[in-house]
Design brief:
This protein has 11 helices and 15 strands. With about 325 residues, the protein is an alpha+beta fold. Strands 8, 9, 10, 11, 12, 13, 14 and 15 form an 8-stranded antiparallel sheet that branches. A 3-stranded antiparallel sheet has the order 4-3-5, covered by helices on one side. Strand 3 and strand 4 form a beta hairpin. The chain is globular, with a radius of gyration of 23 Å. The C terminus is likely disordered. It comes from Rhodnius prolixus. Pfam families: PID, RUN. This is PID domain-containing protein.
């Protein structure tokens, strides 16, 4: 779909109205919400081929199948979108694929992940370099000819070779001159990439809300069994902070951010984290233990405890933290 497509222009028009005219927060009472969702739905259906069923009758195209398929963590899909798909599958309010698409649009807007399916399909972000298109190497000599390349492959899958601008939170240095030439701030490219690793937890959806409960000092003890002890100690004292947060998982560490103020509450590099986990006795509480230095050198540790009613979300977070630690263990 071209950036000059009427649907894209219509979408931008609604976005402008939301920014300039709508009261905050935007709710279902806003007259533009329904039209905005309908516009997104049209974009998702744009260009889909009409299909034949087994007896030869034509049937209207539907996009639920590919939207559902994209919601797979194996494809690198963020949990915010995966949880949307899971919630729709469990819902008994919608039975048709058309209804599922519409429900997905609403939930994904609330969880701020409506961009995910399009992003994964293209997997191209600002700052990335398009190296090859349909087998043709892109260089200065092809300036103005990309449309012709696309026309030749009309109706066929598009093959792209993309050089990613950011890897492990660091910008690919040879891209700096090109970014400056294009008027793109390198800092923006890096920050955009980091934002896309965020695991959202929104207060508007209790199934995904994460609450920071508090910390317990564990001294020099940093093994995983201390998590069980720390959670019990905190629950027995009855003293908890109950701060709504979301957790950003980056390449080299995590950030815990206040949902209301958007301020960083605390952050830890994976090398500062010694263990993470939860217990069967308190399955909706999870935690990690970290120090103020690499865990090899640290002598004082704290257990950071959280609560969520969403077990798959807890599992995904703990898995991400664990993988991050193992990955950075070998980073010099």
């Amino acid at each position: 779909m071209s950036v000059s497509d009427p649907l894209i222009k219509e979408l931008k028009g609604f976005a402008t109205k939301f920014l300039n005219e709508s009261p905050k927060p935007i709710t279902d009472e806003d007259k533009n919400v329904r039209s905005f969702c309908e516009c997104i739905e049209k974009i998702f259906y744009k260009g889909l081929n009409i299909q034949r069923n087994v007896i030869g009758f034509f049937r209207a195209p539907e996009c639920w199948s590919w939207l559902e398929h994209i919601g797979d963590e194996k494809l690198g899909c963020p949990y915010s979108y995966v949880s949307c798909i899971e919630k729709i599958k469990r819902s008994d309010k919608v039975t048709t694929n058309f209804g599922k698409v519409r429900l997905l649009i609403r939930i994904a807007l609330v969880r701020r992940c409506i961009h995910v399916p399009v992003q994964i399909l293209g997997n191209v972000m600002v700052g990335d370099i398009l190296d090859t298109l349909n087998g043709v190497v892109i260089n200065d000599s092809l300036q103005g000819s990309l449309v012709n390349i696309m026309r030749k492959g009309a109706g066929q899958p598009v093959s792209l070779y993309v050089i990613k601008g950011v890897s492990r939170g660091e910008l690919y240095a040879p891209l700096l001159p090109l970014l400056r030439q294009a008027g793109i701030e390198p800092k923006f490219v890096v920050e955009q990439n980091m934002r896309d690793t965020r695991i959202n937890s929104l207060t508007s959806d209790t199934g995904s809300k994460i609450t920071f409960v508090g910390t317990i000092e564990t001294g020099e003890r940093n093994e995983v069994k201390q998590i069980f002890i720390a959670i019990n100690v905190l629950l027995n004292t009855g003293k908890s902070e109950n701060l709504d947060v979301f957790i950003e998982c980056h390449d080299l560490g995590i950030k815990v951010i206040n949902t209301k103020t958007q301020q960083v509450v605390f952050e830890h590099a994976y090398m500062e984290i010694s263990s993470c986990g939860c217990t069967t006795a308190t399955p909706f509480y999870f935690a990690y233990i970290a120090g103020d230095d690499s865990y090899f050198n640290c002598k004082k540790f704290k257990c950071y405890i959280f609560h969520s009613q969403n077990r798959p979300q807890i599992d995904a977070l703990l898995k991400t933290i664990g993988q991050g630690f193992r990955r950075t263990l070998y980073t010099v």
